[in-house]
């Protein structure tokens, strides 16, 4: 059965391979038709292992997201409280007859979490401990022509905890199969980085690394052609050298607002025949970080309005889904985000491709720990042996991406201090202790480089040896200049995580050094939950080592709740905005993520930090940033209008492009509010609740420019389905519980059941950080009136229909035309 499937898949692949000249490169997806089994025996590597009863699936795949939440799962709530373990994947395939005798066949894994061992026909190709590295193996020497071949991959995520957030388990990114001629461009073997001195004439140096066992006497010619986005050739060069240089005049520049990219085609030509070709995205932009004036892009001073993000995709887990990833980025872009920090590890290559073409500046980060571990079984145990390889691979894979403007060699590594070990801590404590502070004895003394400073220099040297075009930083939560990392002098940008109160001392403590908030804020918010009085700050936990409990398991969605090392959203933005030498910030975090449910413990199992919740519903702070970071007209009045009679309610409003906002409760004015100055980000009214409606009217020069009305919802009667994001394959549908007039019932918790025509339901969520309902299900409780269903289309020529029903509510359906 299995065999038949693999043959079928292979037959689908065959025409593609067969149509190629035997010597040209072709890269094909290798995601379909894998077999999977949870469990472990060494025999599973053997080609003849009886795998016919294994589960059939397509990659990318994350087995943890399919599991049940449990306090007993070894990942802990900090790791998402989902299962770990050991799993095996196998794929059968036949070598195409068209593959020339000398041709090569490679397999590329974009990411396997973690500790993968890859076998072909029983032969071990290699192991890779780091779950975020991409890697390639040459299959050629072990292929069996005309017979069944078996790739077997062992994935070991059994030693837990090994991450401070949810990692996922399995081959969670794409896998590719590449055929090349014997003489070919090495993996990640093209490096192009345009530079300019005067902003008009650009030099485009290209270096090409050839791989071949034996090409003596072949005299390959290297031809580089640069195309603009319309496919027009803007430069070309061909000669026998692997180091070439082209010149381009007045190209269109790349920026987040105008992400103009170019494509470089690199060909290897022998006797007039192209034997290999690789395409690389590149772009033209100048940038610099200045110690006095912050960040400059293409001669324009601007802030990095960035967010940190982990890699999971909510209810889809870590399994890469292009549509889900793009949806995340679209929502961030819409909020005004122009920069992303891949915290705290190399991302999926697709994220970088999207950043290039959608326009996000990227800080690409290598590690969350070096030699000193943060959790018992984390990468620190592999660091000594693997850091050189993993860091090098990140640079080689990523350095062409025009979106990347900063390399980060680490996040809050414990080497900032002479001795600081989290070894004895639980995962939950490890997540909290990072910002607890250390005494002066743990800082660097004297002029000599400590081992930790030397390690910093060593890592920065690896980066510089592969790319000198971007500055290097690290996310540091020790603001003293005697931090061993700062002391090393190897960091080009001083990067603070939090510690806003030390920003004023930066010019004095770090003279001449550019400065960036590599991480900031860590506000805590549950969408839909409001704690009053809203002008009080709620700090949770009170101190990192104190347990925080609150029976609601929630945090206030007014911007009045944060961790002790963090601030409100407005708090940090105010400093960043008004501090010219601060290049910008990366807010913790853009989206909620699974794991690290600070300030709560289980059953909380995902973060409260996001500006957008795990299901994709924006929290209110989203609109504060939108009002500051975009020119879009914003008027966002909140919270809802369903309270107890007479209850005192704080109403906040974020707005822009207006001079004033007036609030009306059932037609009665509650007064006009104006932001006093550029330090004020919202206006507020404190009013007594009476059922009915509230309206905010924004005026500019006395003329109404916008208004927003919120009504008191009556009893729930209906479900409203709307398409939140329609992808190529995966589509996201929001379900809202409403009253008979279509007003959202802000406290509704109805249990909604979904079915779909022409689509599979692949996940459900409601944004609650403490729900222990399964993500892989077709029903969900509404959370503050809302939930989400994610569907994957079966037949793209037909529409998808999503149906929703719940006890006592009118059933409803939504038809979505496919793309
Ligand atoms: C930082 C850390 C992040 C996250 C955050 C939560 O210290 O870099 O990974 O743990 O705190 O506030």
Automatic annotation (TrEMBL):
Domain Glycoside hydrolase family per the UniProt entry, residue ranges: 726-814
Pfam short name (any one): DUF4982
GO molecular function: hydrolase activity, hydrolyzing O-glycosyl compounds
Keywords assigned: Glycosidase, Hydrolase, Signal
The Glycoside hydrolase family 2 immunoglobulin-like beta-sandwich domain, residue ranges: 190-285
Residues annotated as signal peptide: 1-24
GO terms classed as biological process: carbohydrate metabolic process
Gene3D superfamilies listed in its UniProt record: Galactose-binding domain-like (2.60.120.260), Glycosidases (3.20.20.80), Immunoglobulins (2.60.40.10)
Domain DUF4982 span(s) in chain numbering: 646-705
Domain Glycosyl hydrolases family 2 sugar binding: 85-179
Listed InterPro entries: Beta-gal/glucu_dom_sf, DUF4982, Galactose-bd-like_sf, GH, GH2_Domain-Containing, Glyco_hydro2_dom5, Glyco_hydro_2, Glyco_hydro_2_AS
Chain ranges of the Glycoside hydrolase family 2 catalytic domain: 294-588
Assigned protein family: Belongs to the glycosyl hydrolase 2 family.
Protein name, UniProt field: DUF4982 domain-containing protein
Organism from which the protein derives: Hallella mizrahii
Source species taxonomy: Bacteria, Pseudomonadati, Bacteroidota, Bacteroidia, Bacteroidales
């Amino acid at each position: 059965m299995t065999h038949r499937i693999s043959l079928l898949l292979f037959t689908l692949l065959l025409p593609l391979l067969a149509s190629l000249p035997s010597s040209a490169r072709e890269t094909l997806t290798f995601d379909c038709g894998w077999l999977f089994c949870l469990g472990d025996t060494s025999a599973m590597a053997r080609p003849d292992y009886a795998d016919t009863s294994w589960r059939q699936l397509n990659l990318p795949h994350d087995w943890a997201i399919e599991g049940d939440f449990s306090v007993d799962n070894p990942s802990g709530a900090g790791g998402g409280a989902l299962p770990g373990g050991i799993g095996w994947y196998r794929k059968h395939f036949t070598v195409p007859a068209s593959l020339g005798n000398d041709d090569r066949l490679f397999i590329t894994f974009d990411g396997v979490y973690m500790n993968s061992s890859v076998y072909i026909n029983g032969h071990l190709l290699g192991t890779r401990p780091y779950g975020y590295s991409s890697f390639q193996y040459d299959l050629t020497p072990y292929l069996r022509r005309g017979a069944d071949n078996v790739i077997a991959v062992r994935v070991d995520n059994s030693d837990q905890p090994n991450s401070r957030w949810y990692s996922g388990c399995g081959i969670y990114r794409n896998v590719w199969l590449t055929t090349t001629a014997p003489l070919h461009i090495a993996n990640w073997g093209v490096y192009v980085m345009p530079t300019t001195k005067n902003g008009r004439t650009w030099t485009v140096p290209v270096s090409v690394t050839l791989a071949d066992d034996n090409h003596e006497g072949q005299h390959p010619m290297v031809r580089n052609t640069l195309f603009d986005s319309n496919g027009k050739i803007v430069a070309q060069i061909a000669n026998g050298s692997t180091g070439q240089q082209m010149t381009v005049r007045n190209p269109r520049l790349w920026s987040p607002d105008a992400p103009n990219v170019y494509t470089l085609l690199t060909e290897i030509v022998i006797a007039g025949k192209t034997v290999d070709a690789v395409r690389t995205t590149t772009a033209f932009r100048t940038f610099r970080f200045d110690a006095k004036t912050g960040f400059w892009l293409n001669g324009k001073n601007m802030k990095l309005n960035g967010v940190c993000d982990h890699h999971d995709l909510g209810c889809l887990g870590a399994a890469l889904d292009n549509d889900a990833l793009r949806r995340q980025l679209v929502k961030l872009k819409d909020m005004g985000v122009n920069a992303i920090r891949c915290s705290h590890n190399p991302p999926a290559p697709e994220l970088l491709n999207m950043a290039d073409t959608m326009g996000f500046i990227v800080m690409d980060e290598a590690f969350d720990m070096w030699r000193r571990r943060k959790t018992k079984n984390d990468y620190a145990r592999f660091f000594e042996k693997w850091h050189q390889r993993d860091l090098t691979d990140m640079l080689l894979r990523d350095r062409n991406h025009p979106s990347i403007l900063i390399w980060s060699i680490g996040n809050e590594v414990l080497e900032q201090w002479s001795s600081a070990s989290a070894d004895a801590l639980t995962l939950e404590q490890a997540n909290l202790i990072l910002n607890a502070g250390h005494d002066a004895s743990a800082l660097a003394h004297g002029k000599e480089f400590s081992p930790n400073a030397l390690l910093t220099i060593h890592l920065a040297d690896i980066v510089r040896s592969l790319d000198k075009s971007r500055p290097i930083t690290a996310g540091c939560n020790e603001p003293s200049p005697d931090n061993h990392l700062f002391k090393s002098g190897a960091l080009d940008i001083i990067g603070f995580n939090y510690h806003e109160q030390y920003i004023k001392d930066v010019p004095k403590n770090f003279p001449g050094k550019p400065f960036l908030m590599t991480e900031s804020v860590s506000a805590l918010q549950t969408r839909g939950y409001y704690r009053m009085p809203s002008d009080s700050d709620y700090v949770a936990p009170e101190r990192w080592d104190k347990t925080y409990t609150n029976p609601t398991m929630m945090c206030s969605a007014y911007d009045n709740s944060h961790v002790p090392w963090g601030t409100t959203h407005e708090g940090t933005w105010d400093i960043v905005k008004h501090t010219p030498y601060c290049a910008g910030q990366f807010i913790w975090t853009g989206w909620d993520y699974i794991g690290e449910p600070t300030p709560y413990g289980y059953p909380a199992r995902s973060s409260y930090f996001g500006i957008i919740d795990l299901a994709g519903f924006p929290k209110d702070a989203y609109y504060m940033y939108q009002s500051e970071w975009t020119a879009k007209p914003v008027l966002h009045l909140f919270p809802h209008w369903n309270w107890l009679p007479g209850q005192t309610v704080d109403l906040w409003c974020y707005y822009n492009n207006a001079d004033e906002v007036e609030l009306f409760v059932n037609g009665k004015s509650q007064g006009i509010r104006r932001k006093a100055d550029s330090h004020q980000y919202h206006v507020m009214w404190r009013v007594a609740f009476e059922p009915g409606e509230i309206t905010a009217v924004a005026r500019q020069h006395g003329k109404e420019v916008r208004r927003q009305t919120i009504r008191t919802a009556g009893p729930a009667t209906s479900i409203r389905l709307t398409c939140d994001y329609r992808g190529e394959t995966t589509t996201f549908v929001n379900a809202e519980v409403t009253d008979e007039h279509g007003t959202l019932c802000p406290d509704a918790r109805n249990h909604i059941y979904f079915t779909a025509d022409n689509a599979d339901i692949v996940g459900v969520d409601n944004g609650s950080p403490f729900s222990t309902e399964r993500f892989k299900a077709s029903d969900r409780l509404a959370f503050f009136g809302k939930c989400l269903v994610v569907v994957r289309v079966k037949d793209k020529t037909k529409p998808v229909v999503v149906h929703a029903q719940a006890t006592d509510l009118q059933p409803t359906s939504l038809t979505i035309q496919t793309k």
